[in-house]
Amino acid sequence: MKYFPLVWANLTRHKRRTVLTTLSVALALFLFASLRSVVTTLRAGAEVGSESRMIVQSAKAIVFFLPMSYRERLLAVPGVQAVTWADWFGGVYQDPKNFFASFAADAESYLDMYRSDFTLPADQRAAFIKERTACIVGQHLLEKYGWRLGQDVTLKGTIFQGDWTFTIRGVYHATNPAFSEDVLMFHYEVVYERYPRWVQPGWYVLELKDPSLAQQVAAAIDSEFKNSSDPTKTGTERAFNAGFVTMWGNVSFLMDSIGMAVVFAILLVAANSMMLSARERTNEVGVLKTVGFGDRLLFGLVMAEAGTIALGGAVLGLGAAKALYRPTGFSAMGFLPGFDVTAGTLALGLGIAVVLALASGLVPAVNAARLSAVQALRHVE
Amino acid sequence: MKIPLVYNVRSLARRPVSSAMTALGVALVVGVFIAMLALANGFKMALVRTGSPDNVLVLRKGADSELSSGITRDNAAIIAALPEVAAAVDGSPLASPEVFVPMNVESAGGGEAQLVVTRGVTPRAFEVRHGVRITEGRMFTPGRDEVIIGTAIAPKLAHSAVGDTVRLAGRGWLVAGHFSAGGSAFESEIWGENDQLMPVLRSQVYQVVAFRLKDRSQFDAAKQTLENDPRLQVDARRESEFYASQSTVLRTILNFLAIFITGIMAIGAVFGAINTMYAAVASRTSEIAVLLTLGFKPRSVLASFLTEATFLALVGGLAGCLVALPINGIVTSTTNWSSFSMIAFQFLVTPRILLEGVIFAVVMGLVGGFFPARRASRIPVVQAIR
Q1: DSSP state, A67?
Q2: Tell me, what's the pLDDT at B1?
């Protein structure tokens, strides 16, 4: 530790270089953490889905409705505790660029089904359920468009034609980070009133008495409807969410390869900077050796310098990523709810910083250790 | 007077490791930049190629995609009778009413079922829609449970070889053939006959009607007639524009990513270039002083060092192009969020993207080289030579 002032003096000699190098390491690790978090957030989204809830959808494709009559039949399946249903509404608010999810759902049973994933004040809940044309929205969505409680919001239907006006009667907070706050939800009856001969539930959600029954229940349901004109595909909510994640294609491969390129590019910058510094100090190393500094110590001094830059950059970059995304509620337009930099990502980032320090410092450090004092001093100009 | 370029090249060669590292840094940034743009471009082109400016696509009013559209049989007949619709050889209108439904199809290797667009067509579709060609096997036979599968999607699906039976909507369909469509999104679809598919889907309506214009310039007239017809509640879109617009969501994401990622990388690379150039200036102080003594203007020294940095970045940029070039043509797949279905497409590197990459590199060089070059041009001669 007593050599720290020496390392510090070396670092501050070319202040600009040290700052720029540290900043490039910081940028690289910030980027790395961001890219990695896309993958971990997607995975988290695939995993947080409940194991005790199941989704029943049409086996033909998610876009097909399931008959309303299935509700009673699903309730009768042994192991099923509760049933609710919803429809993807897909409305546009003012401009097609304003994308957010909107659902028509059977309000009371839907709120009960997801009671553990969000909080909604009891009076707002009651007001929403009472009023046919009411809707509830997530806190984040409310803030995004500057809406107020009690305000009317008009959506233009893309699937269900026409203008649909809803009054915001409730604002919910997601307690489960993967439960999106970018959702507008309203009563299924509203759509049914206008399209009674067409609309039916898009999917059913079941609550199981016991999560261990999942496979059994899925098999029972799918075989019951197998030969009907609307066969079903039943799976746990977790599997359902995981299915959406795979729809993105090979995102993790893309993110990982870019992350590697980023890290490697910055390794070049850091290593180059260390080598530039080392080259300029050849004769100093000679002097240090002459006054009795050992090879090992000189090796350590160079490594310490590289380590300070790499770790300083890592703390800066990883810290910025951690501080930026979660607190600002970043969710990539609602595509990545609960976007956060995980502890695992931070640890991996620090690991990369250590490797960066080793790789960038190694050559200059070995050179410094190997250099003979005579040779080094001969360079004095 | 200008300082000859060869001075800069030799100077760079004198510190090969440092120069190479800086250039390689730029190369990586440019490589990633090109790769990401090629991805966005490939996706866009797959959709752009799907449409032709000669065709009009009619959707239900307010529908933002084929998926959310619906056109009744009566309305389809009205649309086909429009005077602007071109006629086939036999005199009948070149209009193609189509069913469009994403269906769950078992994926190759037994993974989760994939949503694949299944399009119900009439034989007329092969004249109206562009470039659809059977590459293997034959057309589906009208009146039979047969389908043809696009070449881009076929390898990703189970039981998709010609002669196999693929399961769609709970029923088996003979795969009569595979078809290509000039790299368009049609290649990610399954096509069958309307009359076979509609009963299975229990659909009474078509999703879209596509028709050929007699003349490209008649689009506005046709659009006006259709949208003002009280019997119809439809939007008419030029086919090429419609499909291009279908790529917006994903393209926005990809372009944002490309700019965000390469922007940050570029800042890092510029910092690297600044370090390298400052070090170069510092170690060549006396050289620069000699140049100034010889009568070269400070402006020339500035230009010379700026050239050196730019040249270094240019070499890096070209290397980046070479590194990124092999990804051209690699097939990847994702979901087209407008149809919720899988779409397979190729990375598409174009000369324009390569040029953008090179320009990007040059800009990095200029930015990274400016301050060091200015420092060089301001070296106090007397002090430096002493």
Answers
A1: -
A2: 67
Q: What does the alpha-carbon distance between residue B369 and residue B279 come to, in Å, rounded to a whole number? A: 11
Name the pairing type of β-strands A183-187 and A101-105.
Answer: parallel
Q: Do A60 and B61 touch (CB under 8 A)?
A: no
Report whether A117 contacts A175 (CB < 8 A).
yes
Contact across the interface for B18 and A276, Cβ inside 8 Å: yes
pLDDT less than 50: residues of chain A: 380-381
Lookup: tokens for A160: 């269900």
Residue type present at position B300: S
**Any B CB within 8 A of A30 CB:** yes
pLDDT computed for residue A312 by the predictor:
93
The runs of H, that is alpha helices, within chain B are 5-14, 16-48, 73-80, 125-128, 194-201, 219-228, 239-245, 248-283, 285-293, 298-324, 351-377, 381-385
CA distance B191 to B122: 10
* Parallel/antiparallel/unpaired status of strands A101-105 and A80-88: antiparallel
Could you tell me the residue ranges of all domains in chain A?
Answer: 4-46+249-378, 60-230
Gap between the Cα atoms of A104 and A159, Å rounded: 12
Domain locations along chain B: 5-48+248-385, 62-232
Residue B142 C-alpha, separation from nearest chain A C-alpha, in angstroms: 23
- What's the half-sphere exposure (Cβ side, CA atoms, 13 Å) at A339? 21
**DSSP-derived secondary structure for B140-185:** PPTTSSEEEEETTTGGGBTT-STT-EEEETTEEEEEEEEEE-TTSG
The C-alpha atoms of residue B140 and residue B162 are separated, in whole angstroms, by 11
Residue pairs spanning A and B at CB distance below 8 A: 150
Structure tokens given for A78 = 């042994």
Residues A61, B115: C-beta atoms closer than 8 Å: yes
Question: Is A261 in contact with B32 (CB distance < 8 Å)?
Answer: yes
Instruction: Give the A window 138-197 contacts with B, CB below 8 Å.
Output: 156-159, 161-162
Q: What residues in B contact A90, CB-CB < 8 Å? A: 68
Amino acid at B368: G
C-alpha distances (whole Å) from B43 to each of A166, B149, B150, B188, B251 are 36, 19, 16, 12, 8
CA A120 – CA A110 distance, rounded (Å): 13
* Dihedral, CA of residue B315, residue B317, residue B322 and residue B327, to nearest 10: 170
pLDDT in tens, A323-351: 888 777 776 666 677 788 888 889 999 99
* pLDDT score, position A379: 54
> Which tokens sit at A306?
């590289």
* Phi and psi angles of residue B62, each rounded to the nearest 5 degrees, phi first: 90, -15
